[in-house]
Each structure stands twice: as C-alpha cells, then as structure tokens.
Design goal:
The chain has about 260 residues and is mostly helical. It has 13 helices and no strands. α3 (about 35-60) packs antiparallel against α4, α7 runs antiparallel to α8 and α8 (about 155-180) runs parallel beside α13. The longest helix is centred in the middle third of the chain and has 38 residues, at about 105-145.
Length: about 260
C-alpha cells in the first residue's frame, strides 16, 4: 500500500467527520485496492489477459458464447486471488496498520471492509467478460459464416461466477491467516499441484483430494450439474480453505501487536 493510498484513506475518514462507518471503510479499502502501483499493474494485466483470451479463443473455438467467456477464467482464477492476498497483507507489508487501526480500532470491521472490494471485483470482471464475449461471438460468427451458439444454462453462468468468487475468497483467507504476501501466494499456487499428486496416490488419495481440493470441488459449479454429494464436498473444502483460515486470520489480526 502506497503512502498516497494511506493518505487518501485518512482524508476520506476525516471528511466523514471522524466517524468510521462501514461504508466509509469500504470506500477507503476500495481506494487502497485501486490506488497502489502494484494493484494498478495487476488489474491491467488481469483485464488485458482475461478479455484478450476471450477474443483469441474465438479464432480457435468458433462462435460459442459461453466457451469464449469462460476462457477468461484462466486469467481471473490466477490473478484475482493474488489481488485478494495483496489486499489483506498490504497493511502489514507497508506498515500502515497502525494508521488504519488507529482510525478504526474495531479490526473485524476493517477486515470485512477489505473483503468486499475484491469479491465485488470478481463478479464485475466476470460480467465484463460476458459482455465482451457477446460481440466477439457475433463477429466470429459473421467472419466464419457459421451460426453462433448462444445457449447457456443460467445455473452454469452463476456457478462460473460463484467459482471466481470462491477462489478470490480463498486468497483473502490465505492473506488474512498468513499476513505475508509471498508465503500466501506460494501456498495458493502450490496447493493444486500438491492435491494433484495426492490424487494419484491410490484410492485413499483420490478420495481425500475429492473432498479437500477446492479446484476439484468447484468443477460441478462451472458445469452446472451439482448434486447433493458435490455440494457436501464443496462445503467441506470451503470450510477447510476459506472459513477456518479466515476465522483464524481474524483472531490473529485481532490479537496482533502493531509496532
């Protein structure tokens, strides 16, 4: 977090008469999310890769609306959690936690306000990808002279967006738990590799990965055919990788001394 972003947050709270309402905190955290050099670069890369992949996929996959839109998930699923991790760890890596928590001593409210902008951003970029995929699909259909495929089940679209939100929430939880961006990013990217290896260790490893690998348990969401068993596995993996780390992170931040 840059000094400019921290100062902007201070000015916002002062403009509110010194009262740190929750919406004021959300506005401050949103400014922090978009004001830093790192977040600007990361956001630009995210949007460029995500929307660029939609257009590029049209040349290969043809005019299939949701296939084109879903291609952006590769970039979104990689970079949105990183942005979430940086949001949670920025106060500690840039030593602005003292200012932030002096303005709002209730640290749980600050953490809640930090969670909202990345989660809203996850939904926003998914909607943007859908909006971009529509004209790209029409253009590819006209260029190739083949009919476009527009049909997609609403639950598939909602499941795809929910998956991006879940992956972003995992980044938030890892950031809150570790309060160290490099460590959280390494764990986030190493976890799928680890579960892939565990899944190859026989039946027991396959069952374990089927319940605890968040990337696997979210697959039925994106395909739109989630059953009761799939929902149970998703709930367990969300509890292990999001709910429990976030609760532990909130407890850690609440008790952590600020130097």
């Amino acid at each position: 977090m840059s000094d400019t972003a921290a100062a902007a947050g201070l000015d916002t709270v002062r403009a509110a008469g010194g009262r740190s309402s929750f919406m004021t905190l959300v506005r401050v955290e949103t400014r922090k999310l978009v004001d830093t050099r790192t977040s600007k670069i990361l956001t630009a890369i995210l949007v460029t890769l995500g929307l660029g992949s939609v257009a590029a996929r049209g040349l290969v996959a043809g005019p299939h609306f949701f296939t084109l839109a879903g291609t952006s998930a590769i970039a979104f699923g990689t970079l949105l959690p990183v942005l979430a991790i940086l949001t949670m760890t920025g106060e500690w890596s840039h030593r602005t936690a003292l200012t932030t928590f002096a303005l709002e001593p209730r640290r749980g409210r600050v953490l809640a306000a930090k969670c909202l902008p990345p989660l809203v951003a996850a939904v926003a970029v998914c909607v943007l990808a859908l909006l971009v995929a529509a004209p790209v699909t029409a253009a590819v259909s006209a260029a190739q002279g083949v009919p476009a495929t527009w049909q997609v089940a609403p639950q598939t679209v909602l499941g795809w967006i929910a998956t991006m939100v879940i992956l972003t929430a995992e980044g938030l939880a890892m950031g809150a738990l570790l309060l160290n961006a490099p460590a959280a990013i390494v764990i986030y990217f190493a976890t799928p590799i680890l579960w892939s290896a565990i899944g190859r260790l026989g039946h027991a490893g396959e069952v374990l990965a089927g319940w605890l690998d968040l990337n696997s348990t979210t697959n039925p969401l994106t395909s739109g055919d989630m059953s009761g068993g799939d929902l149970a596995r998703l709930a367990v993996s969300v509890a292990v990788w999001i709910a429990i780390p976030m609760a532990a992170g909130i407890l850690r931040v609440s008790r952590k001394d600020i130097n």
